[in-house]
Design brief:
It is a single chain. This protein is an alpha/beta fold and 407 residues long. It is built from ten helices and 14 strands. The protein folds into two domains: 22-324, 3-Layer(aba) Sandwich (Arginase, Chain A), CATH 3.40.800; 338-406. Helix 7 runs parallel beside helix 8. The radius of gyration is 21 Å and the shape is globular. The N and C termini lie far apart (53 Å).
């Protein structure tokens, strides 16, 4: 891969331009001599997508469903070198076999660097806003993990409630913030605030010896959710309902163990394995709510054989395959297509109400919202295990958390 480094246009970095020309924000992709014979295969991934090149500018995006965005930004990160990752991941991704031929994908190239780190954050926000307005699912190849903040800013500006899921071995927030800078290690300080539009924050794959007790207590006390590596390994399917309700999924590749992903400045011998992170990526792709999927902190300087880049490419492939197999389902007033289950629990007054899709066998549950004499409810994704727990007179953990949060 080759890239030409240029700065983002100075105008409209922090204020969205309604007549946005994305060609001003991206450097074209240009391939050197193919590094693998499969690039000559007509079934290769790169032969079946639109690619922004010097001779093929970004255009007619309303005809596409997925956009790939490289963001070579690693300022404000201890993992210097991750800015080189987008092209390395792209190179590996292009060598894979295509997914569904019906799913139209546009690789927009690499975002031009802002003059400052914050310029890149807000410039990426503008790009994601534009693509979201076109109903395009975005795949971000980072770059540093704090680029996730750009995605959150999109929902904040829309003033819409959203759910964020982060896959990370650490919690990237401080219970007692010491700096206002947006760093890879603390960017969630700017997201987990009382007045934001964030509804639920989930962290998957944390490791307890990297997590302060004050952080896990904060998550519990604020009715968010954290799932340790061991829990995921025991029952990886329990991640699917969380991802089904997620709007933004951000993956820090340090969550994957060194044996499967060595490309990080401070790798760990323990963590998720390659198969698990790919399965989770596929679950995410099948979610009808996810609009942004980001992979961050791959560092080619510590990845001489390109294993981490290859794994990130396969995660991207599985996410895209999941998109191609999405089944859009929603509960309607008559609940046609769903079977309803009502369980009376001896510990609480509200009945526990579950729905099972007759098409996909997926499950949802109602959370009652009681305000004075007014009664309503919201419906969230759940697993069959939640239903079985309720049937055994146990209150599902997520039901109880959200019930206390909403009442």
């Amino acid at each position: 891969m080759q890239k030409v480094k240029r700065n983002l246009p100075e105008k409209s970095l922090k204020k969205r331009n309604s007549a946005m020309n994305l060609n001003d924000y991206f450097d074209p992709v240009s391939l050197e001599k193919p590094t693998h014979h499969i690039l000559d295969n007509p079934s290769a991934f790169c032969r079946n997508i639109a690619i922004h090149t010097p001779n093929f500018p970004i255009h007619n995006l309303d005809q596409y469903k997925v956009a790939i965005i490289g963001v070579p930004e690693d300022r404000n990160s201890i993992n210097a070198g991750s800015s080189q990752a987008p092209d390395k991941i792209r190179n590996k991704l292009y060598q894979l076999i295509r997914t569904s031929i019906k799913l139209k994908i546009f690789d927009l190239g690499n975002m031009k660097a802002g003059k400052t780190h914050d310029d890149t954050i807000f410039g990426l926000r503008d790009i994601l806003q534009e693509l979201n307005s076109l109903d395009i699912i975005c795949i971000i190849l980072g770059g540093a993990h704090q680029l996730t903040y750009s995605s959150c800013l999109v929902w904040e500006e829309m003033q819409k409630r959203y759910n964020l899921t982060v896959i990370d071995s650490h919690f990237d927030f401080e219970t007692n913030p010491t700096t206002k800078s947006i760093l890879a290690e603390n960017f969630l300080n700017n997201v987990l605030l009382p007045n934001t539009h964030l509804f639920s924050y989930n962290n998957l794959g944390h490791q307890q010896y990297f997590s302060e007790t004050a952080q896990t207590n904060w998550i519990e006390n604020n009715f968010h959710h954290a799932m340790r590596v061991g829990v995921i390994r025991t029952s990886i399917r329990e991640t699917e309902p969380l991802l089904r309700d997620t709007h933004i999924l951000s993956v820090n590749m340090r969550s994957v163990r060194y044996a499967d992903s060595p490309g990080y400045i401070y790798p760990s011998p323990n963590g998720l394995n390659g198969e698990e992170i790919c399965q989770i990526s596929r679950y995410a792709g099948t979610s009808q709510n996810i609009r942004v999927f980001g992979i961050f902190e791959v560092n080619p300087l510590y990845d001489p054989q390109g294993i981490s880049s290859y794994l990130a490419a396969q995660m991207t492939w599985y996410f895209i395959e999941g998109i191609s197999q999405r089944t859009i389902e929603s509960l309607s007033s008559d609940n046609s297509g769903f079977k309803k289950f009502i369980i009376k629990n001896n510990q609480i007054d509200p009945e526990l109400v579950f729905y099972k899709s007759l098409l996909t066998d997926r499950w949802w549950m109602e959370i009652p919202v009681i305000t004075g004499k007014s009664h309503s409810s919201i419906v969230i994704a759940c697993s069959e295990e939640d239903y079985k727990s309720a049937s055994s007179q146990l209150i599902p953990e997520r039901w109880w958390k959200l019930f206390r949060k909403l009442n």
